[in-house]
Write a structure and sequence with these properties.
Elements (H helix, E strand, L loop, with lengths): L3 H6 L16 E6 L2 E6 L10 H27 L6 H7 L8 H20 L5 H8 L7 E3 L6 E3 L1 H14 L2 E4 L5 E5 L2 E12 L2 E14 L2 E11 L14
Parallel strand pairs: 3-9
Antiparallel strand pairs: 1-2, 3-4, 5-7, 6-7, 7-8, 8-9
Length: 237
Amino acid sequence: MLPANGLLNDGFLRILSCHGSAAGGAASILLSNGTFRLAGETKLTFEVTRKRLLVALAAAALGLGGLALFFGVLLHGNADAPSDLRAQYLRRPGNAPPAVQAGVLAALRDFQQGYAKRDPKDIDPFMSRLFANDSDVLILGTDRSEWARGYSAASDFIRADWLGWGNLRLAVDDSIVSSYGDVAWIATVGTVHFKGYDRPVRLSAVLTRNGNRWLFRQVQFQWEGRAASPSSLLLRR
């Protein structure tokens, strides 16, 4: 075995040759500051030239580059849904009368503004303006374990989103709004911006009318596109 200090003290290793005899001759490795002798019974001959070293380094770099590209594709594979397909979702505006549509979109716009501002101090007035204060409120996140049922749980869910999720941007004005009496339901698309990439998302919701206000009863977030990549599993939702 080579002495460890011999390798550590030498700034650049050049293996010129290893030679020995079948009868137990010694092999030699020439370093910039000396030669080590190795005992061996098999004749070995090595020659590592600068060209071969560069080829090996280039191959390693290519391999690392391919690995980086692979994970880059995983990371960005879900980032963009075809624009024409997304447009098809929103071609039919829904059957809500104009007054209902205006009220529901006003609530959704307020919802979007809260997610854009992302200020935890605003969570109480945000919830009182937009959600019915009872146990029937339900928010479903993109993760299968994310069920927030009841006013308090919904408030905690949204506050956690503002603190730790990406930047949500919804296509509010292109939403599909339908209604029957004092119940309305809505669907739209958007994106969640994370550091370095965007991921398309869908949102659907059910609202009920309370006087002249439309209040959210159920909200569901859903990722668009393919199943979540390994990189996206590191994200909260």
